[in-house]
Amino acid sequence: PGPLPSARAVPYGSMAAPGAAALVQYVVLRGDLARPPRSWPLGAVVAQGCHAALAAAHEYREHPDTGAYLEQGGAMRTVVLEAPDEDSLKDLAEVLRRNGVDHRVWTEHPEGIPTCLALRPYPKNQVQQHLRQLKLLK
Fold first, then answer.
1. Is position 121 within any domain?
2. Does any domain span residue 3?
3. pTM of the model
4. What was the pLDDT predicted at 119?
5. Is residue 16 situated within a structural domain?
6. d(CA 63, CA 91)
7. How buried is 29 (Cβ within 10 angstroms: 0-12 exposed, 13-18 middle, 19+ buried)?
8. Cβ-based neighbours of 72, under 8 Å, separated by 6 or more
9. Mean pLDDT, rounded, for 27-50
């Protein structure tokens, strides 16, 4: 038998080196956008999250964690959380800024409405404490 192929499929959970922290991109969407009185269509809300995630990845493209995250391809982990309203999203952005957490707030134009924020990819244990109070978006 010949040598093993250099690339082979590996189970999702074993992508990182042993002991390495898993990289996650957190996206925080305003939950009130989809509920009355705003009642944005689901696609419009999802688009806000996509814009924010791409903007954060682009803005921090030179960071080694961003490159490593994007190299994972289909194994990338994204967690989508809910901020209840505009004020809570702005408060979170301020907490992240004060703590030196790289992120990008997405503002819908021309309305000027902050709709979402996304962190650049981070090891979960480095940012989890700032996001603990938020629930998964449902």
1. yes
2. no
3. 0.84
4. 98
5. no
6. 25
7. buried
8. 15, 23
9. 96
Q: Which amino acid does the sequence have at 131?
A: L
CB-based contacts of 65, cutoff 8 Å, min separation 6: 23, 120, 121, 122, 123
Q: How far apart are CA 3 and CA 136, in angstroms?
A: 45
What is the rounded distance in angstroms from the CA atom of residue 51 to the CA atom of residue 106? 7
* CATH at 111: 3.40.1490.10
What are the φ and ψ backbone dihedral angles of 107, each rounded to 5 degrees?
-120, 125
Domain that holds residue 77: 23-136
Q: Residue 91 is which amino acid?
A: D
- Residue reference for tokens 């925080």: 28
Q: How many domains does the chain have?
A: 1
pLDDT above 70 covers a percentage of the chain that reads 86
Is position 95 within any domain? Answer: yes
